[in-house]
Structure formats: structure tokens, C-alpha cells
């Protein structure tokens, strides 16, 4: 009974009777059920690597009846398959002439682990991490235990203040679940790697405050003499570096202003997509904000940035399925639409986008219009690599700009020709003024009542030496996008003022010459001083001059442009709203625009006698304009029916082929004189 109280297991072997006694505690030690345990049985529990040595030793002892007293350390494997470390004491002597071997078996697994901890600390020294904040650890792979330096308590809750020893399974439970599979994968790799090879892995753990910390585990696998596999290493906290890295990563793939992915990400993502799905069609959509530069220049970069954010939010808010939206740079964005089945789906999606942006966007109490020019290319028909697709979407976008902005174009091979023509025109246009190729024609405006000429609209003409006659519908947009409209426009303004002065000296009749002003011209800071100086130079009364501005030009930046127009009007010139009815057409805006007259667009005049709707619109415009004291001009009048109808509803002025085409100045002035 006394023996039962002992921690250790006692045993005795009689060499004469070969009787073997072992105290019942052995059952606990080895987790066995069996009663009658033989000496040979016991040997079978000794770990393989220790067994033979021990057996040999024992046999020698018996054979020569050596009297000795010693202890040795050995590993045993219990019936649960767990490895335990034991200290075996052996003592031999003669009792009543019989050679007896007896001893004790003591479980020293824990003590051994403590020793291993010390070894790990030693190892830690070898890893040269002493003095740092690193947490040394060792992990006995076969025994499924891991011991960590007490500093691990900064991360996980654990009683006591010594180094901790926990099962590896428990340790795994601290690892952040998203990182577990990668962690296990890395561990497998380490297990199958050569020993003494250093490894390094990074993973997150949720610390006791439920914060994510990044740890780096560095170490190496070693094989102990007894066959145990150990990983010795140290954990270091790399949270700060990792967060910086992630931030850099975020920044390198995300746009700082809008937060959406950037051009780099776009290239990476789409490149991968093509590689993985070479047979799946998708659309690359190049989006350019038409008036961003202007808004940036006039309201400042903060407003510009906010507009980009607003725009991004609008597109994101549309929740376009299977798409990737990135900022390409500046005011250029890229939308990739995957799973494209029909080009019509793309078209209706783009119609929606343009519609979404037709409403003014308010930023810091400023209302701005943000129209888009959009170009589309389709994989794989328009290009098999991302660079070609991008270049062609960009080309299509450029054409959308030339074709009047606020629209989209889908790339087709003809565009290459069209663009060639564009580049050719731009190239020739650069020398057009120097070559005296630009001139101005004058189209009379008629008083409906008296049928007398009351003025002219100046219309630019370009007869290019190389290309022949080029229509203003073709070269004006190109001159706008290239900035050439400024010198060309100035030339026309000066030419008109000069001719106007000439004519004013020839007649007492009052008349006006109307000059078209484009968007780019109005925005120019130098336009007002130039007009003022030209009027002065030719000593012309400003009331002879009128400027025509389209409503879409004004509505792009209403406040800014209205201010500019007011200043222009202060010079004494009059202003006409051109192409009325084709743009934003806010009748309520008519009240606040500083204009004198309004030109009903030809498309409505074309509908006279053909379409009741057009007539109704014309009637309404005239009525409203007269109420607002505006002069109404009908443009593009070609037939007698149109003329009769317009006269019957009191349209003030008429312009069109029915009366006269645009004429050389010499011919035009004859109509007045
Ligand atoms: P717009 O200002 O609307 O000019 C009226 C256009 O209609 C002119 O075309 C004119 O020739 C044409 N037109 C006049 N009556 C009739 C008619 O009865 N039937 C038809 N079918 N057409 C008629 P044009 O000269 O080709 O000019 C086209 C556009 O080019 C102008 O439209 C204007 O926006 C722009 N443009 C022309 N000259 C200048 C200029 O000096 N400066 C600027 N900024 N733009 C100009
Ligand atoms: Ca005009
Ligand atoms: Ca017009």
C-alpha cells in the first residue's frame, strides 16, 4: 500500500525464478489496462531508439551478475501512443545468494520539457535574438507540444509568469483564422524540408485585446539524437512593418483621391484575366471627363478632387455587375465590363452612365456639369492584349470628343482612317493662317416683317492647299481640341471688325455682324481684352458686333460663363444663344442669361409643315422669348413654307438658304447697300 503512494513505479526481477514484480502505478504511467506485466512487455514500451541499448545493457548485467547502481533516461511510448520521458533507476545485488535486479521508473516528461525550454533559450542565443523583443520558442513535433517564452503573454492570456508549454493544437487556435491554411501549408513545407534549414513565415494572431498583430516566425528544424523533430525559433512582432507594407500595397494599387483601384491594378487584373480566360470577351471602356481641366483651373484643385470623388461615387452607385472601375490618371477612368454578350448591353449601360451625369453635380455649393467622352474597345476582336485594347478605347474616346463630347464611340477599324484624317487636318491647320487659307463668309439675316437684311453671321471657311475645302463642322472641333481655335478665332474676330468698320462707313443703315464663339474661346482669359483692343484698333462701335454662343457651351459652367458673358456684354456687343433647343434647354435659365437674341436650331425649322411637335415647340419658344424681350432668329430656313409659317407666328429674324447662302464679303455687302 505504501508503494501506491509513491510517485514512481517500483520493479524487481529475480534472476533465479525469473519472477518480475512491478507496482500498479505502471498502469497509470503507460495508460495500460493489462494486469500481469512481464519484463519483456516492459521493454516493448521503451521507444525503439532506446530499446536495444537498454536490452543489451540488461543482458550484460545478468550474464556477468554485475553489481551496479545507476539511472538512465529513456523514452517510452504509452498505449495512447504518447511519448513520455522516463528516468529508469537500476540497482543490482545479491539477496540470499540470488541475483536480483530492481529499480524505479519515474515520469520526467515535464522536467524534460523544462530542460528543453532552457535549451530553446540557449538556441535563442544561437539565433542571436537575445535582448530583442523576440519570443523564443521550441516545438517538439512528435510530442505535439510547443513552449514559448513568457513574453507571449503580451499576446495571449495565460496564467503564471514562466515560459508556457501548450499543445501545438492549442497554439494553432491562436492563429488568425484567415491565415491558418497558409500557416499549415508553410509548416508542412518546413516539415519536409532539410534539417537545419532556416525558414521564415508571417501570420497574424488575434491578441488578448482582440487586436490583430502580425508575427514573423523564424527558425529551423532540427533532428534530435532520439529521433525527435524540433523546431527552434523566435517570433517577432512585425505589425508596424506589415501595416506600412499593406498601406504601400493599397496605395500602389489604389488611387489616393478616389480610393478606387488605379492604372497599375487595372493592368495587373486585366492581364491576369486574359491569361486565365483567353476566350472570354470583355469591354474596355475609356472615360474622360469633358470639362475637368476647366473646373480644376477655375475652382481650384480641391473642387476638382471632389468632382472626381463625386463622379466615382455616381459610377460606383450604379453597381454595374461584373465590372472593374479604375482611375487611369487625371480625369481619365477605365471601366472594364466582363461577361459581355451583346454590344447592345454595353450601349445601354453607357447610355445610363451618360444619363446619370446629365444632372448637375453640386460641390461646395457650386453646381457643375460633368459630361463624359467615352471610348470602347472589345476583347478579343479589337485587340488581344491590354495595351492595344487601351489604345483603341482611347482612340474611340478621342473621336467621341471630336464628335461633340458627352457621348460614346465604339472602336472599329474605320476609326484608324478617321483618326489619320484628324491628324492630317490638325497638322495642316497649324499652318493654315500663315498660308492665308482661312477666310470668312457672311450669311445675311433677314427681318421677317420687312424682308430687309439687318446683319450677317460670319462663318469660317478653310480651303486647304493639300486637302481642299474642309467644312467648319470638321475643322472647328479639331481646332478646339488642339487649341488652334484661339489664333484662328482671333483672326476671324479681327477680320469681322475690320469689314464691319468698312461697311459702316459705306452706309447709314444699322446692321450687326455675328461672330461664333466656341467654348475654348470663352474660357480664354485673353478673349475680352482682345475683343476690346480690336474694337479700339478699328474704332468700331461695339453695337455692330454680336457673338453667338451655343447653350451647351454656357450650361457647361453656367455661373462662370454667365459672368464672362456679362462682362462681354458690358463692352457694348450683343449676344445670341445659338442652336437653341439642342442642348440642356432649360427655359428657366433663359431669364438669367445675359442674351439679346435666341436662334432656334435648324432641326426644329426642318420640322415645319412636317411635324406638329416642332411647330408647337417653335410657337412656345417664340412666345416665351417675346415675353422675355428676346429677339427670335430662325436658322436654316430653306423653303417658302417655312418662311410663311415663321412669318405667321411673328418670328423676328430669319437666316437660311431660302434667302442666301453664306457669301463673300463683297457680295454680302451689296445686299445691304
Ligand atoms: P452654326 O453657328 O449653327 O452656323 C450655321 C450653319 O448652318 C453654317 O454652317 C451655315 O452655313 C449653315 N446654314 C445656314 N443656312 C442654312 C440652310 O438654309 N440650310 C443648311 N443646310 N445649312 C445652313 P457652317 O458654315 O458649315 O458652320 C458650321 C458650324 O461651324 C457653325 O454652326 C458653327 O458652330 C461653326 N463655325 C463656323 N464658323 C465659325 C467661326 O468662325 N467660329 C466658330 N467658333 N465656329 C464657327
Ligand atoms: Ca452660329
Ligand atoms: Ca446655329
TrEMBL record:
Residues 280-413 form the GGDEF domain. SMART domains: EAL, GGDEF, PAC. Residues 199-250 form the PAC domain. Residues 422-673 form the EAL domain. InterPro entries: Biofilm_reg_signaling, EAL_dom, EAL_sf, GGDEF_dom, Nucleotide_cyclase, PAC, PAS, PAS-assoc_C. This is Diguanylate cyclase. It comes from Clostridium isatidis. The lineage of its organism: Bacteria, Bacillati, Bacillota, Clostridia, Eubacteriales.
